[in-house]
Amino acid sequence: MEFVPHQHRLSRLYREYQNNEIISLHYNYTGKLSTSRYKGGLKAEAVFFLVVCIFIVLENLIVLLAIWRNKKFHSPMFYLLGNLTLSDLLAGIAYMVNIVMSGANTLRLTPAMWFVREGGVFVTLTASIFSLFAIAIERHITMVRMKLYSGDKKGRMALLIGASWLVSILLGVLPILGWNCIQNLPLCSTILPLYSKDYILFCISIFLAILISIVVLYLRIYRIVKHNSQRLGTLRKGALRKSQKYMALLKTVTIVVGTFIVCWLPLFILLLVDVSCEVNSCPILLKADYFLGLAMINSLLNPIIYTLTSRDIRRAIIKLVCFMCLATEDGETRWRFGIFPILEGSTSRSEKSSHKQEGLETTVSSGNGTPTPVKPLVPKKVDY
C-alpha cells in the first residue's frame, strides 16, 4: 500500500516534466515574456556568444591535448589543472546548448529539457569551483612540505577529481529530482523561473564559501613563501630552481582564481538579489544574460592565462599547434613539427634529450644557467 502513493507521485512528476505549458506559465509569472528576447530567432548578441563558445571549446581542447601529450605534465598538479580545463571545455559546450535552446526556443521546451539545459551549466560551474579548491589545497600542501606529491599519491588525486565531478553532478540534478518550484510560483527565481529560490541560495552559499576558502588558502601560501624566502635563498641551485617553478605555477593559478572571481562574482551577487527580491520588483534581474556573458568569458580567458603566465605550458601549446621551417646545410627547406626558436632558449635540462632526438636546433640550460647550444642532427652531404 505504501508503494501506491510513491508511484502516483512519480506519475505526476512525469506529466509535469513533459508539459511545456509550465514553461510559459513560469516565464509569464516572472515577467520575462514582456521582453523581446523570447520573440523571433537568435539575436545578434546570442550569435556573438556562440562564436565565443566555439573559441572556448577550441582553446581548452588545445590545452588539454598539450597536457596529455607532454609527459612532463603528468603530475598531480597538472592533473588538477587539466580537470579545470576539462570543466571549461564542457562549460563552453553547455553554454552553446543553452544559447541555441534559449530565446523563442525556450517556450518549446518541456520542463525536463529545461532542467537539463540549465543543469549542464550548474554542473560545469561547480566542477570549476571544486577544481580551483583542489588546486589551492594541493598548492598549500606543496608549499608547506616544499616537495611535490610522490607517485603513489596520484591515485588520491584521481579520487579527488572523481569526487568533485560526482558532487557537481549531484548538485546539478537536484532540481530535476524534485527541488524546484513547479506548482509553487511565489518561490520561483526570476532569472531561472523553474528553480526554487532556496536551491539557488543553497548553491550560491556553497560557491561563496569555497571561494572564501580558496582566498584564505592562498593568503596562507603567500605568508609561508614570505617566511621561507631567506631559507630558499640558501638552497642548492637544483632545489632553488624547483622552488622557483612552484612559484611560477602558483602565480598562474592565482591569476586564474582572481579572474574567476572577477567574472563570476557579479552573477553570484545578482542571484542573491534575485533570492531577496519579490517578483517583478527588480528590473535588473531581466538583464541577467549580460552577467552570464561576463561569466562565460572566464572560460575563454583561462587558456590565455595559462599560455601567457606559464612558460612550460606555452612551450607545449606552441609545439602542438605550430610548425617550424628548418633549413638544411645544402640549402633545402623542410617542415618539421616543432616550436618557435625564440622559445627554445629557455628549454630546461629535462627536455634536452627529447630535443636531441627530434633534431631541433635549440638551447638547453647548463649547470650554471648559461644556455648551451645543441647542434641539429642533420646528416652531412657526402660527395661521391
From TrEMBL:
Please name the source species.
Leptobrachium leishanense
The record ties this protein, via Pfam families, to: 7tm_1
Q: Where is the G-protein coupled receptors family 1 profile domain?
A: 59-306
User: Which parts pass through the membrane?
Assistant: 46-68, 80-100, 120-137, 158-179, 199-225, 246-270, 290-309
Give me the stretches of Basic and acidic residues compositional bias: 349-359
Superkingdom as given in the UniProt entry: Eukaryota
- Paired cysteines (S-S): 181-188, 277-282
This one is known as: Sphingosine-1-phosphate receptor 5
**Which lineage?**
Eukaryota, Metazoa, Chordata, Craniata, Vertebrata
- Please list the residue ranges that the record marks as compositionally biased, kind Low complexity: 375-384
- PANTHER family in alphabetical order: G-PROTEIN COUPLED RECEPTOR
